[in-house]
């Protein structure tokens, strides 16, 4: 190439880099300003764009269950939402420039999700808009809309690529182990102001229970999430048969230790959900009539006897987790748990009368900040009950109410169709998937079944639980390369056309 032809390119590069360097230098005078962080992040993203194009799908999988937030964006949205939006945009762009890039299309799942997204958009349009508190609006509720739509977008981003077979175990493990990052929120609060900078990267909501109960029960939500992520991983990686293999006793010891750590969160639901998952996975692994059932039963009885025998000596947060059992615990733990239950029942009795007016057009998530302020003041002065605040915000602590009230029957119908289609996908991959993915497919359908039962009959919050269902269904489709089908039987005519060999005489 002619050397003189290179001069315009050098001049162009210099003309772009020098002004950018000057702007960066001016902005870095205040390095922690949101504008500075956003611009620096954009520059770094442009520089690392080749790596992003290569690994954006893997990053989404690794960040799906983390507690990380994007602190330099208004409202501090979850990191998985931002990665889902960027990942889907990258996948669409790749599809437009390369015919080899294609989505894993599963029509029976796609249609209900698109219908659900349409219901959400129509509802927020007719019920006061999106209501962004971070943008200074008087109407709040945008974050819940963001997580619902983000879960739908995330499904399409997860199914935009096939996970290579040699990385399937790693990706599935990181998908659940990433939930351990919730511990950072508890560590930041317990360690003191010197570690408060960690709240720039993880959600503050995780430590809210610890803040409210620091002088009483001290409930460690982040530790409970870490424990859950740990035994989700163990059940996915080894299965119940592998965990109760007495030749590898360390696996059972680790699982029991994680279970005990999870009790520090003070959640009765942690024991209930783990019990449901064990039952469903026992069923799908077909272990009820094998030697593993009595081994598991004996281990459960021993752990139960230990907990019952030392219940009154355990920390108060662990005792609160056991209050649904007919055993003796500290009165403070019992009173806190029963007060929470009575609070919910009283709230449900009021909310159930509002359901008929939201059957066709849901209430949505948007609410007035002024109404919330006046309600809190009235509660503080004793004019209203504690649950009245929840009637304003819409956090009903019930899976069905948090679906029907905000989005009515159209949203509920779309969600039910999505769940049915997702269960069919998981079941076919479980029945007809490859043998080396058997442990993953078994855990996914067992976890889906247990989580769905828990969502309907125990505790659920639609704007938070939707990403659980879309995530595991999207992961199953991406790992299996779509939806598996039963092997095609060999036609009878083809068998008849195969020439039959004449039997040979036996040697003398």
Set down the secondary structure blueprint:
Blueprint: H1 3-27, H2 34-47, H3 49-63, H4 79-97, H5 107-126, E1 139-140, H6 142-158, H7 168-177, H8 183-191, H9 208-212, H10 221-243, H11 249-262, H12 268-284, H13 292-309, H14 316-321, H15 331-351, E2 367-368, H16 369-380, H17 388-393, H18 401-432, H19 438-457, H20 462-480, H21 492-497
Antiparallel strand pairs: 1-2
Helix pairs in contact: 3-4, 3-7, 4-6, 5-6, 5-18, 6-20, 7-10, 8-10, 10-11, 10-12, 10-19, 12-19, 18-19, 18-20, 19-20
What's this, in brief?
With 508 residues, this protein is mainly α. It is built from 21 helices and two strands.
Description:
The chain has 508 residues and is mainly α. It is built from 21 helices and 2 strands. The protein has helices spanning 3-27, 34-47, 49-63, 79-97, 107-126, 142-158, 168-177, 183-191, 208-212, 221-243, 249-262, 268-284, 292-309, 316-321, 331-351, 369-380, 388-393, 401-432, 438-457, 462-480, 492-497; strands spanning 139-140, 367-368. It has a two-stranded antiparallel sheet. The longest helix is centred in the last third of the chain and has 32 residues, at 401-432. The chain is globular and about 70 Å long. The model is unreliable at 1-7 and 502-508 (pLDDT under 50).
Q: Key terms for this structure?
A:
disordered N terminus; two-stranded antiparallel ribbon; mainly alpha; globular; disordered C terminus; 508 residues
């Amino acid at each position: 190439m002619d050397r003189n032809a290179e001069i315009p390119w050098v001049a162009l590069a210099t003309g772009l880099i020098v002004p950018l360097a000057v702007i960066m230098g001016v902005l870095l005078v205040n390095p922690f300003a949101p504008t500075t962080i956003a611009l620096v992040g954009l520059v770094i993203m442009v520089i690392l764009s080749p790596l992003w194009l290569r690994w954006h799908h893997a990053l989404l999988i690794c960040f799906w269950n983390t507690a990380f937030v994007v602190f330099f964006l208004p409202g501090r949205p979850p990191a998985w939402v931002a990665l889902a939006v960027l990942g889907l945009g990258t996948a669409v762009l790749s599809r437009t420039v390369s015919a080899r890039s294609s989505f894993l299309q599963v029509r029976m799942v796609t249609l209900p999700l698109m219908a659900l997204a349409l219901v959400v958009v129509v509802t927020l349009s007719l019920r006061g808009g999106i209501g962004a508190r971070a943008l200074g609006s008087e109407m709040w509720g945008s974050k819940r809309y963001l997580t619902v739509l983000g879960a739908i977008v995330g499904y399409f981003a997860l199914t935009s690529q096939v996970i290579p077979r040699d990385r399937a175990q790693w990706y599935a493990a990181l998908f659940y182990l990433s939930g351990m990052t919730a511990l950072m929120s508890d560590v930041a609060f317990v360690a003191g102001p010197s570690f408060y900078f960690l709240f720039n990267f993880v959600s503050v909501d995780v430590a809210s229970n610890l803040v409210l109960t620091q002088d009483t029960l001290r409930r460690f939500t982040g530790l409970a999430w870490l424990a859950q992520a740990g035994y989700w991983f163990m059940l996915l990686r080894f299965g119940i048969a592998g965990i109760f293999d007495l030749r590898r006793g360390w696996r059972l010891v680790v699982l029991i230790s994680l279970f005990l750590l999870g009790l520090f969160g003070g959640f009765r639901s942690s024991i209930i959900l783990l019990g449901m998952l064990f039952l469903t996975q026992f069923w799908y692994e077909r272990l009820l009539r094998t030697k593993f059932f009595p081994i598991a039963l004996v281990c459960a009885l021993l752990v139960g006897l230990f907990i019952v025998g030392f219940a009154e000596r355990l920390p108060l947060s662990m005792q609160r987790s056991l209050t649904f059992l007919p055993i003796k615990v500290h009165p403070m733990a019992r009173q806190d748990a029963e007060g929470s239950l009575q609070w919910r029942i009283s709230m449900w009795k009021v909310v159930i009368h509002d359901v008929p007016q939201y059957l066709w057009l849901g209430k949505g998530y948007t609410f007035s900040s002024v109404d919330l302020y006046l309600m809190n003041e009235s509660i503080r002065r004793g004019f209203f009950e504690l649950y009245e605040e929840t009637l304003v915000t819409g956090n009903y602590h019930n899976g069905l109410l948090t679906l029907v009230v905000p989005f009515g029957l159209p949203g509920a119908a779309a969600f039910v169709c999505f769940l049915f289609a997702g269960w069919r996908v998981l079941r076919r991959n479980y029945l007809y998937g490859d043998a080396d993915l058997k442990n993953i497919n078994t855990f996914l359908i067992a976890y889906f079944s247990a989580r769905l039962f828990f969502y309907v009959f125990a505790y659920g919050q639609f704007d938070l639980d939707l990403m659980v269902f879309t995530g595991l269904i999207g992961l199953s489709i991406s790992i299996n390369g779509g939806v598996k089908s039963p092997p095609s039987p060999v036609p009878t005519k083809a068998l008849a056309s195969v020439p039959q060999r004449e039997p040979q005489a036996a040697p003398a």
